[in-house]
Specification:
Layout: E1 47-53, E2 58-60, E3 68-71, E4 74-78, E5 82-87, E6 90-91, E7 100-103, E8 106-110, H1 114-117, E9 119-127, E10 130-133, E11 137-141, E12 145-150, E13 163-165, E14 172-174, E15 183-192, E16 197-201, E17 205-207, E18 217-223, E19 228-232, E20 237-240, E21 242-246, E22 250-255, E23 265-267, E24 270-273, E25 282-290, E26 293-311, E27 316-319, E28 324-327, E29 329-333, E30 337-342, E31 345-346, E32 353-356, E33 359-362, E34 371-379, E35 382-393, E36 395-398, E37 407-411, E38 416-418, E39 423-425, E40 429-434, E41 437-438, E42 445-447, E43 453-455, E44 464-472, E45 475-486, E46 490-493, E47 498-501, E48 506-508, E49 511-513, E50 521-526, E51 529-530, E52 540-542, E53 552-554, E54 563-570, E55 575-585, E56 592-597, E57 604-609, E58 620-627, E59 634-635, E60 637-639, E61 643-644, E62 649-653, E63 660-669, E64 672-673, E65 683-684, E66 702-703
Parallel strand pairs: 2-11, 19-26, 27-35, 37-45, 47-55
Antiparallel strand pairs: 1-4, 3-8, 5-6, 5-9, 7-8, 9-10, 9-11, 12-15, 13-14, 15-16, 15-17, 18-21, 20-24, 22-25, 23-24, 25-26, 26-29, 28-33, 30-31, 30-34, 32-33, 34-35, 36-39, 38-43, 40-41, 40-44, 42-43, 44-45, 46-49, 48-53, 50-51, 50-54, 52-53, 54-55, 56-57, 57-62, 58-59, 58-61, 58-63, 59-66, ...
């Protein structure tokens, strides 16, 4: 027996099991959009670099006729960004006329070669705000898929039980040779790329067969998958297994700790998992068997994952002198490590700055802390970057964006809140004055820590000019408003509680007085939920159009309209409210939990639970039954004949033996009979001890009225 494990001139490529993407990739770009950001000084036209195009890894075919490789890099920034590149961590020197040139932000490599250009590339984008570093892009050289031909093109060797071409090594295996295998062999290695498909032929090598051997022998596995195969979540995983033997061995696959998924492809010599998950991790076995014996090989698929962000940093504006804590977190297997960059350079703990894995803690920020920061999470499968700009601000107080309200109306006897929120960094100290008098906290006046002024129990004497003075080490500013005291809003006629029956109409009165210079609005709520008076077909109406009258009419009152009604009369400066309770009485609700027990031939015992009485005591219960499958509900005779409202059990009489029944209960009060209970479970009365004298139609219960 013989095999072609590697013919002269055949390129051999091994695909690392932990590769996260197909080996052959077009260098494309990832689009990452984010809004423009403010600068250190807060100018809306100045912000640090934000990547829009970043390089991606690729596999470039050796001996390709392509003249160049382009690694894309473009960042949005104001002022515009300048670009640098690193290869294997070292800054590149890009000179005009050299093979490696900077075109915009892109790196263009002309006549690429494995010896000079294979490696890890990163783009750095900078402007006066700071610097950010792109993700890593790996440039590899090699081939992707293999086929073998015999003697001439396109006479390709079929992949059948006797032949196998490994896509890991490129080797051709023949389980048992015969005369048809004699000839000249060449390997065709093909790279499939977005911009082209490249194929390379090896030199032909001749296979000679000294003598055909017809002896039978047991399988020996020659193409083995590794003892450990590392794969990333979502990656396609292919295990290869092929054996020599005579007769040609049959290949079978199994998962030692479970079963193979029907979505997987098991074409004898290969087991392919299209999108591996953590559930697919485990030990797999290939068995080669023929009539002379068997051989097995086992290997473990270990599923891991590239880093993935759980929490990222975002652009932040912070006051000079303040403290700041930034955090980022990433998931992955193995667990990612986290490091930090400032303007593209590694960041370590120092005075005022503590670096603790995913946490970055600043104390007493100063202007030099401004810049571009990046959180970097990495494990052996990849590296991800999260970028953000820190803008440390130092601003004198400025009221232009948020002045004190110019006119501040307030109700006599009420309370007013006046805010003072100038833009300032660091936070400004605030003082308030009325006229020329500085205000201090008292029983009626409070200045909160954030500078808000609160005045309680307001009187006409509180009218006047109020000025907020704000100051920090950068400067000072002030803003003034005028407090105008108005008459308080009062409820002059409050709604009265009421007790009505279902279907009645009711008007709840509500009148109010208010300052005539202001508009008055009435708002009604039921159990704190606003009532929509404009709902078409609703039960609520505004009873009077006068501004000071807010009466509410309830039409055709339903049980759901019971509750606490609140009338609120309000102006822009204050409000007043009064409450009233409305009780709506109606027939009882349905009883619950109907249970049948003590089943005889003509009697059963029913029990139930009380339903809502809806504010009117239950006077009596009525029991009904129906025969199955399609009988009508009819009232039945009971013991006692009249079931009082405090009862919860009764006996049903006059049933037909050996008949299927269901039962239900209805409650009544002075306002009527309520909805019936749900039907009981189906029961069958017992067989009579003697022949029945009447038909089921003769049972003694009458139709419901």
């Amino acid at each position: 027996m013989s095999s072609l494990s590697r013919l002269p001139g055949t390129p051999t490529m091994r695909t690392p099991a932990r590769s996260t993407t197909p080996l052959l990739l077009m260098l494309t770009v990832a689009l990452c959009s984010s809004p423009a950001r403010g600068s250190i000084q807060g100018s809306p036209t100045t912000f640090g670099p934000v990547f829009e195009d970043q390089p991606l890894s690729m596999l470039f075919p050796e001996e390709s006729s392509e003249e160049k490789v382009t690694l894309a890099c473009r960042a949005r920034a104001s002022p515009p960004a300048t670009y640098r590149w690193k290869m294997n961590g070292t800054q590149m020197t890009l000179e005009p006329g050299s093979r490696q040139q900077l075109v915009g932000g892109n790196l263009v490599i002309r006549s690429p070669s494995k010896a000079q250009d294979a490696g890890v590339y990163q783009c750095l984008a900078s402007n006066p705000v700071g610097t950010v570093v792109s993700r890593e892009a790996v440039l590899r050289f090699g081939c992707l898929s293999y086929r073998w031909l015999l003697n001439e093109f396109p006479n390709f060797i079929p992949t059948d039980g006797r032949h196998f071409v490994s896509q890991t090594t490129g080797n051709l295996y023949i389980a048992r040779t015969n005369a048809s295998d004699l000839g000249n062999y060449s390997c065709l290695a093909t790279s499939h790329m977005d911009f082209s498909t490249k194929s390379v032929f090896s030199k032909f090598a001749q296979l000679n067969l000294a003598a055909e051997d017809t002896r039978l022998f047991a399988p020996t596995i020659k193409a083995r998958f590794p003892a450990e195969t590392y794969a990333l979540v979502g990656q396609q995983v292919t295990l290869e297994c092929f054996a020599f033997g005579n007769p040609v061995p049959r290949i079978k696959w199994r998962k030692v700790e479970g079963s193979l998924s029907p979505q997987w492809t098991t074409a004898e010599s290969t087991l392919q998992i299209p999108s591996v998950s953590f559930e697919d991790e485990g030990t797999y076995e290939c068995e080669a068997e023929n009539s002379r014996g068997r051989d097995t090989v086992q290997g473990r698929i270990i599923v891991q994952a590239q880093p993935e962000w759980l929490k990222v940093i975002s652009d932040t504006e912070a006051d000079i002198g303040s403290n700041l804590r930034w955090g980022c977190a990433a998931a992955g297997k193995p667990r990612p490590t986290v490091r930090w960059l400032r303007n593209g350079e590694p960041l370590a703990s120092q005075a005022r700055l503590e670096v603790l894995a995913g946490d970055l803690r600043f104390s007493r920020l100063n202007l030099e802390d401004s810049g571009m920061y990046q959180c970097v999470a990495e494990n052996k499968h990849g590296t991800i970057y999260a970028s953000a700009e820190l803008a440390v601000q130092a601003l004198a107080p400025d009221f232009r964006l948020n002045p004190v309200r110019r006119l501040i109306p307030a109700a006599r006897g009420g309370e007013v809140t006046i805010t003072c929120q100038p833009r300032a960094a660091p936070k400004a100290m605030v003082l308030w004055s009325k006229g020329t008098e500085i205000l201090v906290t008292s029983s009626r006046v409070t200045v909160t820590p954030d500078g808000t002024l609160i005045i309680r129990n307001i009187s006409r004497a509180d009218e006047g000019k109020y000025t907020c003075f704000a100051e920090n080490f950068m400067g000072k500013a002030n803003s003034t408003g005028i407090l105008s005291v108005r008459d308080a809003t009062k409820i002059t006629l409050a709604p009265s509680s009421a007790d009505i029956n279902l279907g009645d109409n009711l008007t709840l009165q509500c009148h109010a007085s208010h300052d005539p210079t202001m508009d008055l609005t009435f708002i009604w709520t039921l159990d704190d939920f606003p009532i929509d008076l404009d709902k078409p077909g609703g039960h609520y109406r505004r009873a009077n159009a006068k501004e000071t009258i807010g009466d509410l009419t309830i039409l055709n009152a339903q049980l759901r309209h019971s509750g606490m009604y609140t009338c609120m009369a309000q102006t822009v400066v204050d409000s007043a409210s009064k409450e009233a309770t409305v009780l709506i009485r109606g027939p009882p609700g349905p009883p619950g939990g109907v249970v049948v027990r003590d089943i005889g031939d003509t009697t059963v015992q029913l029990s139930w639970s009380r339903g809502f009485d809806n504010h009117s005591p239950i006077a009596k219960y009525t029991l009904q039954a129906r025969t199955l499958p399609a009988g009508k509900w009819k009232q039945v005779r009971t013991s006692p004949a009249n079931i009082e409202g405090n009862a919860e059990t009764a006996q049903v009489l006059g049933l037909t033996p050996w008949m299927d029944y269901q039962f239900r209960v209805l409650a009544s009060n002075i306002l009527g009979t309520g909805e019936p209970s749900g039907p009981s479970s189906k029961i069958r009365t017992k067989e009579s001890g003697k022949s029945p004298l009447v038909s089921p139609r003769g049972s003694k219960y009458s139709a419901q009225a």
